[in-house]
């Protein structure tokens, strides 16, 4: 069966202190995998969408680990190439009270050799959604060409193309990234961007101003951390949904979980308010764990919470989202 969703981008092996603490003081590390696009792929697969992840990994144990872990999450990895000459990327997480610091070891990685044509395969035909991020565009010239081709030539005809800006300062400074990411985002059908990114890149902290900067997409979703998220369609009223008040164990991956929840709702034809709420619910689950991904909330619980009144939604306390009983 061909996938409903295709995501494209690099995934690395992740090492983080176990138990959670400063990396410099760690005696042990937990080994996982992490990458924006594969995080979204795993989230969408967990939400019931047949999803394929397109990438490259090295012919090394880390590459085997990455592919095995993502496949175990129910994602189709049949379009992942193994590069005999370049390594799988690695990053280290250093959780701190003020936020998690990340140390990358990805220069010259196998995924940086992704190039145009990566989606030109019959096994991906018929996909309804292709998801990209600005991270891929920063990895190499050929990676940027792949993103440009996917947004321009549309190698999967009829597929909605979503683009998460995902600016990474360690990959390229804001002054360099700003015009490129604006051009790429404006060519997408649906854009997700953090308000902090918009301020850093385009010197605006106003969702309506972001919408004006990106007139091309049918919808722009502006995320404002713990405050909430706003969906701004090209035509029609905007929709704001406040974020849930949840304790934060570690924030890395929450934006990808939000994207998976939001995109799942779009694929299911839900309205903007429901889509933003499902995004918040999935993000909140990931905020509560030390890893980059977490299982989405129970579907019965999600359905109940999505349908709550605005007043009830704003008053929600963090439940135990592992069981439907938490909705009561």
TrEMBL record:
Pfam families: PfkB (PF00294). It comes from the Bacteria. One of its GO terms (molecular function) is kinase activity. Residues 4-298 form the Carbohydrate kinase PfkB domain. InterPro entries: Carb_kinase_PfkB-like, PfkB_dom, Ribokinase-like. Keywords: Kinase, Transferase. Coiled coil: none annotated. Belongs to the carbohydrate kinase PfkB family. This is 2-dehydro-3-deoxygluconokinase.
């Amino acid at each position: 069966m061909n996938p409903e969703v295709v995501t494209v981008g690099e995934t690395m092996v992740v090492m983080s202190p176990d138990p959670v603490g400063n990396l410099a003081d760690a005696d042990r590390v937990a080994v996982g995998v992490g990458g924006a696009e594969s995080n979204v792929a795993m989230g969408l697969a967990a939400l019931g969408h047949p999803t394929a992840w397109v990438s490259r990994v090295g012919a090394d144990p880390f590459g085997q680990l990455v592919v095995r872990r993502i496949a175990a999450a129910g994602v189709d990895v049949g379009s992942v190439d193994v590069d005999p000459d370049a390594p799988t990327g690695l990053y280290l997480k250093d959780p701190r009270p003020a936020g998690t610091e990340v140390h990358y070891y990805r220069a010259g990685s196998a995924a940086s050799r992704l190039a145009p044509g990566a989606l030109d395969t019959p096994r991906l035909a018929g996909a309804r959604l292709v998801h990209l991020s600005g991270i891929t565009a920063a990895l190499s010239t050929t990676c940027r060409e792949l993103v440009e081709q996917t947004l321009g030539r549309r190698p999967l005809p009829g597929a909605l193309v979503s683009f998460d800006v995902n600016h990474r300062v360690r990959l390229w400074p804001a002054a360099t990234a700003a015009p490129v990411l604006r051009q790429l985002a404006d060519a997408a059908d649906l854009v997700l961007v953090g308000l902090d990114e918009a301020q850093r890149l385009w010197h605006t902290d106003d969702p309506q101003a972001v919408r004006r900067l990106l007139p091309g997409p049918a919808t722009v979703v502006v995320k404002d951390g713990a405050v909430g998220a706003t969906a701004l369609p090209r035509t029609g009223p905007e929709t704001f949904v406040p974020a849930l008040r949840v304790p934060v164990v570690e924030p890395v991956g929450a934006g990808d979980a939000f994207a998976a929840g939001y995109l799942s709702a779009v694929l299911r034809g839900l309205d903007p308010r429901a889509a933003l709420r499902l995004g918040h619910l999935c993000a909140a689950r990931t905020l509560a764990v030390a890893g980059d991904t977490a299982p989405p909330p129970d579907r019965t619980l999600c359905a109940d919470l999505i349908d709550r009144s605005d007043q009830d939604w704003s008053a929600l306390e963090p439940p135990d989202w592992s069981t439907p009983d938490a909705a009561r």
